[in-house]
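The following block was generated as part of the benchmark described in Methods. Ligand: hexanoyl-coenzyme A.
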Amino acid sequence: MTEYTTIRTEQVDRVGVITLHRPEALNALNTQLMTEVLDAVTGYERDPGIGAILITGSEKAFAAGADIKEMQPQTYADTFAGDLFAAWDQLAQARKPTIAAVAGYALGGGCELAMLCDVLLAADTAKFGQPEIKLGVIPGIGGSQRLTRAVGKAKAMEMVLTGRLIGAEEAERAGLVSRVVPAAELLTEAHKVAATIAGMSLPIAMMAKESVNRSFETTLAEGIRFERRIFHATFATADQKEGMAAFIDKRPPEFNHS
Ligand code: HXC
């Protein structure tokens, strides 16, 4: 396993786990951490033994944003020429399901990182926000787009224009997170969700993910056509035969991911 300094990685059965680990900076996303997360994601994507990727932080912070100390001296030319934060698109492009388990602060780039994941589970201690405006910038890792799609215009505008943080309950009511659980149970629950997904047929889970994601990119009619074509394609897999045979035989399915 690659040696990382700003993250911890571990494999739990078919789940690849990434734990952000820069406690001295509340897991602020500096270049090294971004590079390490994306490297770990690439490794899990390539590993046929991994069916889901779980990303989490600490009790106090999922991530308190992009690293302000690293960003502060940069010029417009630096950010433009280096296409600052564009690399995070790689996580959005991940084909295996990703789960974010958020406790504590998920601010700025931290909130955006959580929103890059497919399933977002929150501890009751979670606080979400896009406070970039207070620093004289705006969200730069998709926050103005993904937050708006998740919670609607009025709440996204208020959060992006005032920097107001929202708690876990408000985030759940607004549709930003799939579920809120007591902080002490966050990791157990997140592992359960990840293991459940990883226990499904991998190609089918990837098709399901691709189909849901399509809804953000296309018209309803095209999205439904896309879904139907993929649905038809599931019948080309051994796992469709196994899944339906198992139901008929009243036994659990044994998917072989083909
Ligand atoms: C760099 C950070 C950091 C960050 C915290 N730290 N957030 N360092 N970048 N985003 C560091 C602090 O400087 C401090 O280091 C240590 O972590 C602990 O933080 P404290 O502030 O002392 O902790 P606390 O008082 O508990 O306050 C927690 C907090 C606060 C409310 C989360 O740290 C905070 O407001 N952080 C910034 C949140 C933010 O604005 N995020 C958006 C970033 S911009 P020292 O060395 O002093 O101990 C962003 C842009 C995305 O994400 C893309 C578009 C540009």
